[in-house]
């Protein structure tokens, strides 16, 4: 076969696991947005069969044949084929030693476990979830055993979400974070002038919040023709193809800012996914390159734009039309101060920018222990609570606001949390260089998001998974990820918000 | 390998195409209930890949191996395995001569064509759809060429929806229908006393109609834990597994009965799917056996129950609470008479029970021509209109209410329409024997649907695809499908409604 034919056949072959992964995604989307509960068990079996098929394709002899043949002609490959080959090779070597039956059993387990976790959280009872979680962790450990790792077993999982990321790097990263955040938080608490946040818990009906979601998405220009907004228990973004990217939010009537920032956060994810180049749309490169870069985009819209005074000034009049007299006493400045308050809290997703990394650090440290096998499942809630006491000075009053708060582990996503912190750091680094080209906050004040979106598309979004995180951030800033930008961003911001000097 | 192992491996293999078919179904459901339009094209590609995979599995050498091995041990197989083998063998022999690439191209075509048809219908312009339709028909003809047929090429397609059904049988069936319906319709029009239907077009808000849907489903006892009701352009039922069966309806504010009867119709389908035996749930037999039997269940709830005086008497008070003063002048008797009016009309889905079969006859005759290749695509609208003039005495004023009214052809479903008429006939035959065991309308009057549902489950629903239509109807009535029951049902009903003697 000519190399052109091999490439064409290889691409057709990868279309199959793209389609199978999409199908799993479609079932997940369906489950999260209202599928009948009675079908959960059968649906989990179907998803495990589909995931098993995709898995089998990635480690088949046919795949091995394509890899060998394409590698032999490496110099003749176009960029897209080369990168696809890289991912296929990585998956092949990573997964080929896991028995398909075990992978499918694991996949069925994680499909079912989301409902178990939900019920445990609703009933505020970790004991209902602990056996399932224990099984998930043990599968994680077992699979790492099959897959192999360098230095620390947790590195194997970190690499799944952020290529090349290691415990060594993260230890340095978090230690730098800790050195900045802990004293800054202390200064804020002792010397700072705490903004008034009392009005943020005023009642806002779900209907009004839905209108606020529409306002926000209209402002930033969400493409409804290629996406939609729905409700789910836990906000998320689901990208099927570049032309079908869906986001969700949830509404809490005494916490309208929760949905407000979720919508902006998920919008950031969706913009990344909707802005890819034509020639990678529909291929296996048609998704963001890493969780870290992805989170940089969501956090950019949520925090850097969404918590700026300029944004609140821009939306104020229209927002007031929705919020009505109940908020007539609140100025844009008051909103902006309130959404930038920093204080220890229990729930990660509601945490402020400053303390957020401490929440991640806790999960990072616990996950390292879990994956090393150094844990006692019954003692996890206590361990969790102790770490909150240690880093944040507060203790969860229940499992629901402690160990059970996050969905990730129920889906088998261990090693994912650190990417949230990387995302914040990437966002600060990107923002620093965007400001050299654009008057970012001036544009936000005018509601002119076009130039910002174009800039992101040119530097990041268009590539999907074509460029590595390192390539992207180096092209933008001339260096790899550097936490100093984020540290400086936090120091500048909170010095200002709290009137420190 | 022992035969037990072969059976186990064979079942695992069939799980794969069950899962792939479910995945295609999930994408269809998603598209029909609000997926972003911009993703349609990419979604069609994904669906074609999934359908192609399922298709490949059904004609693979591995499948051939299972068929040969299981046939060699036919006497040792349990009933479920035997029936699964029968279907796999039929599919294998039917499809193995179709090239996979052509099947996938066809699948992509029919995924895309639904949107094209929708647009053509919205714009009332057949020319927008005709090229696509022409391609679909030509694929149909081509595939029949690959697959082979007996006597008439259309038989090949009829058999897809109703095993063993032939043109010869249908010609007899429809000729009997025609001989009854045409003179009866004439008598009604000349001698009958036409019920007042003027109030059926009174405005009923969508919100009220949604409440009516809930009332109806509560009355008959829809299992929301294993199903849901949503909106779509065209009402339909989608069964994933026994424990996840979904129905849709549409709301027209000046035609509230349209949704009323759609809900009952789709409920009948859903009850069939939700009532299968434990041991076939999740297998490839976990769906109704044929379109004819399926339609018998939907038409039973829509017409035999839903248009009975007893049903209207039962729901009257609760219905009135929703409809309010606007309908205070209408008695249950007036409702019942109005919903049993018979007169020539243009739209099949809104047609009454008497003239319904004439609508089907027209489609049957046209499809026979299409599949024989005896058609001119440009002249189809005229041909359609002529037949309406001939059989019903009225002529569509536009493509939208003529040739473009049905979704079926856009999905490649040629040969499906006759099953609607078979469904009506099966329903009358089943009803005739159900009455020997139960005081059906007495139960309906009391709103006690349990015994009726139990009867249907025992005789029909539990089997899924395990028993053939012939086996089912013979076990109930001691004979095969016999149109006489239906003819008698129509004569009795309309003589009464129109006060003939």
Q: What can be said about the biggest beta sheet of chain A?
A: 3 strands, mixed
Determine the most extensive contact between two protein chains: A-B, 39 and 39 residues
Contiguous uncertain segments of 5+ residues of chain A: none
Fraction of residues in helix of chain A: 55-70%
Spatial sequence of strands, sheet with the most strands of chain A: 1-3-2
End-to-end separation of chain A in angstroms reads 70 Å
Helix count of chain A equals: 20
Which structural class fits the helix and strand makeup of chain A? mainly alpha
Topology, number of strands of chain A: 3
What percentage of the residues of chain A does DSSP assign to strands (E)? under 5%
- Helix/strand order of chain A: HHHHHHHHHEEEHHHHHHHHHHH
Shape of chain A: globular
Overall pLDDT score of chain A:
95
Rg of chain A (CA only): 23 Å
Oligomeric state of the chains? homodimer
Can you walk through the features of this model?
The structure is a homodimer of 501-residue chains. Helix content of chain A is 64%, strand content 3%. Chain A has 20 helices and three strands. A three-stranded mixed β-sheet of chain A has the order 1-3-2, sandwiched between helices. The longest helix of chain A has 30 residues, at 3-32.
Describe the structure in brief.
The structure is a homodimer of 501-residue chains. Chain A is mainly alpha-helical and 501 residues long.
Features:
homodimer; 501 residues; mainly alpha; three-stranded mixed β-sheet; 20 helices; 3 strands; 3% strand; globular
């Amino acid at each position: 076969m000519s190399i052109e034919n091999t490439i064409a056949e290889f691409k057709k072959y990868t279309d199959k696991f793209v389609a199978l992964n999409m199908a799993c995604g479609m079932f997940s989307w369906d489950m999260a947005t209202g599928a009948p509960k009675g079908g959960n068990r059968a649906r989990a079996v179907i998803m495990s069969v589909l995931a098993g098929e995709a898995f089998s394709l990635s480690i088949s002899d046919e795949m091995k044949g394509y890899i060998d043949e394409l590698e032999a002609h490496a110099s003749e490959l176009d960029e897209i084929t080369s990168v696809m080959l890289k991912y296929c090779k990585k998956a092949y070597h990573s997964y080929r030693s896991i028995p398909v039956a075990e992978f499918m059993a694991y996949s069925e387990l994680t499909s079912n476990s989301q409902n178990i976790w939900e019920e445990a959280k609703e009933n505020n009872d970790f004991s209902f979830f602990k056996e399932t979680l224990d099984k998930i962790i043990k599968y994680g450990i077992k699979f790492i055993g099959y897959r192999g790792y360098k230095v620390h077993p947790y590195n194997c999982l970190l690499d799944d979400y952020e290529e090349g990321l290691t415990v060594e790097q993260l230890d340095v990263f978090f230690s730098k974070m800790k050195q900045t955040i802990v004293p800054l938080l202390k200064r804020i608490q002792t010397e700072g002038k705490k903004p008034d946040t009392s009005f943020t818990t005023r009642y806002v009906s779900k209907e009004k919040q839905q209108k606020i979601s529409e306002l926000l998405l209209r402002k930033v220009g969400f493409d409804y023709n290629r996406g939609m907004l729905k409700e789910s228990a836990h906000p998320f973004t689901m990208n099927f193809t570049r032309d079908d990217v869906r986001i969700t939010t949830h509404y809490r009537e005494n916490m309208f800012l929760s949905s407000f920032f979720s919508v902006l956060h998920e919008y950031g994810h969706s913009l990344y996914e909707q802005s890819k180049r034509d020639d990678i749309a529909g291929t296996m490169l048609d998704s963001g390159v890493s969780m870290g870069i992805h989170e940089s985009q969501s956090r950019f819209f949520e925090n850097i734009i969404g918590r700026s005074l300029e944004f609140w000034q821009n939306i104020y009049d229209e927002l007031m039309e929705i919020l009505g007299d109940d908020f007539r006493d609140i100025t844009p400045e008051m909103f902006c101060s309130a959404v930038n308050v920093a204080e220890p809290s229990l729930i990660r997703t509601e945490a402020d920018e400053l303390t957020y990394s401490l929440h991640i650090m806790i999960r990072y440290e616990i996950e390292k222990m879990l994956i090393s096998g150094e844990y006692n499942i019954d003692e996890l809630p206590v361990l969790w609570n102790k770490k909150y006491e240690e880093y944040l000075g507060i203790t969860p009053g229940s499992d629901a606001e402690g160990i059970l708060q996050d969905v990730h582990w129920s889906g088998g996503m261990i090693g994912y949390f650190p990417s949230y912190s990387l995302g914040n750091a990437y966002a600060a680094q990107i923002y620093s260089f965007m400001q050299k080209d654009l008057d970012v906050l001036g544009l936000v004040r005018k509601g002119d998001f076009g130039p910002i979106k174009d800039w992101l598309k040119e530097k990041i979004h268009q590539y999907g998974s074509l460029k590595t995180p390192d390539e992207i951030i180096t092209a933008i800033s001339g260096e790899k990820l550097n936490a100093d930008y984020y540290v400086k961003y936090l120091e500048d911001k909170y010095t200002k918000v709290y009137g420190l000097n």
